[in-house]
UniProtKB/TrEMBL annotation:
Function as written in the Swiss-Prot or TrEMBL entry: NDH-1 shuttles electrons from NADH, via FMN and iron-sulfur (Fe-S) centers, to quinones in the respiratory chain. The immediate electron acceptor for the enzyme in this species is believed to be ubiquinone. Couples the redox reaction to proton translocation (for every two electrons transferred, four hydrogen ions are translocated across the cytoplasmic membrane), and thus conserves the redox energy in a proton gradient. This subunit may bind ubiquinone.
Protein's UniProt name: NADH-quinone oxidoreductase subunit H
A Pfam family that the UniProt record links to this protein: NADHdh
Name of the encoding gene: nuoH
GO cellular component: plasma membrane
Amino acid sequence: MELTFVIEKVVLVSVIFLITLGIAAYSTLAERKIAGYIQGRVGPHRAGPFGVFQPLADGGKMFFKEEIIPSQSNPFLFIAAPCLALLTASIGSAVIPWGQDVTIGDRVIQLQVANINVGILYIFGVVSLGVYGIMIAGWSSNNKYSLMGSVRAASQNISYEIAMGLSLIALLMVTQTLSLREIAEQQNGFWQNGWFSWNFFCQPIGFLIFLVCSFAECNRTPFDLPESENELVAGYHTEYSGFKLGAFLFSEYINMFVSSAVMSTLYFGGYNFPFMNDLGLSANIIAVLGVLFLFAKIFFFIFFFMWIRWTVPRFRYDQLMNLGWKVLIPLSIANIVVTGIWITVKDLL
């Protein structure tokens, strides 16, 4: 393995990790600002101009707060749980293609950490591992509210992972690949051969199912039953404080960022943007513009996550489970059948 290749990947991983942490940190400020606007108030505005230093103040507060470990808890698992949650949230971005290849001299640099041909399966594997951090946190805390919150989280994630997987089967029938880069390349530009090239236009139902399941997988309102304050105090992180609590909160925002990137890549062209092939610019400039457009799509979905949180009330738990098992799963199966019929008819014609 070439040393240059290793250096490129280390630099890319470092940049992506720092960007992820920065977006997660300032998502907390954006959420509070959006909440303030929706509720007719100002939001954070004292720590720096317009409150831009508020995430730094919050991070410093959590870092220096006293670390409390309950006497009846399992100390090793109690500490390992937030670390596992943060780790599984961070590694999900490894297979996301952030842009087209960049050429520097005689080297072609791929803006993707790992271009594997089963990228979607990797994403699902990472998502499945994420619930272990929550389960370990609930059990190791030796608190009945934490345990109930973690059990809710596990059953919720398992239920909605099924519908999410079925929604992607229809997309895979159309794209014929599990590679996120190949899926992004198939959506080149915006218009091809007299038809919209973005997968959203041929799989709108699949996207809607995937979007709803993403809310459930990220434990975001209206699917935040694992940490519903009016029932379970704070759910699975009731006993957590300081830096460990911050790790859990960070992992939620990182999951939201990665989910937005995956949705943008699968259904909205990823780094592709309209008329990109007609601008007459160099390939490197197009690649940079593609990265900017991808992040614009990601920020839109992050805003959408926050907008829904402050406008839609929380479901009851029976409503949440009924939606997953009795609505989304049958709807995703019907979407697979309709997609199969559509592909067959198109091939015959």
